[in-house]
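Please, structure for the following, as tokens.
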Amino acid sequence: MERTVLVVLLVVLCVLAAFGLLVGWRHRASRQSHLAEIPTTPGDLGPDLVEPVTGMYVSTTTSGTWQDRIVAQGLGRRANGAIRLSAEGVCIERDGESDIFVPVGNLLTVTTAPGVAGKVMGMANGVLIVRWSLGGVSVDSGFRSNDTAAQDDFIDAAQVLIAKGQGGGRPADSPSTNGAPS
């Protein structure tokens, strides 16, 4: 009998913990409801400037605070997919989730970091970071690439696009300035 009571208490405790996590996630989303809507992906992005990079979308955070995950509008849900760069902007295509489109005019910089909320790697170029403006709020979207060589090509092409004056025009931040762990 005593063992049964302990098992029931443990199950109740686990259910309460899961419920608390769900309530916290929903409260975070409601606190972030002031954020602008994610721009709609155009019907035709045009040709890719570099090969799309496959991997996993990790999360989006407030710029400079790598653990402040944004969960509103589905930005906090990780998914496998690909990231594309065209003259129109950056498109993060997520399997089972809506795409995240960053128009070239909102693009601030593309760099790497050792981590972002939800994924920390043991290397400086572990996560591809796309810094962009979402309705005047600077955010960082993290993408874990399957191929670091393709990731480097993507960064180079994005920096050329920004340097042409088509992007947000801010200089690229070094990985150590985004607040991610070293």
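The first helix runs from residue 2 to 31. The CA atoms of residues 110 and 159 lie 7 Å apart.
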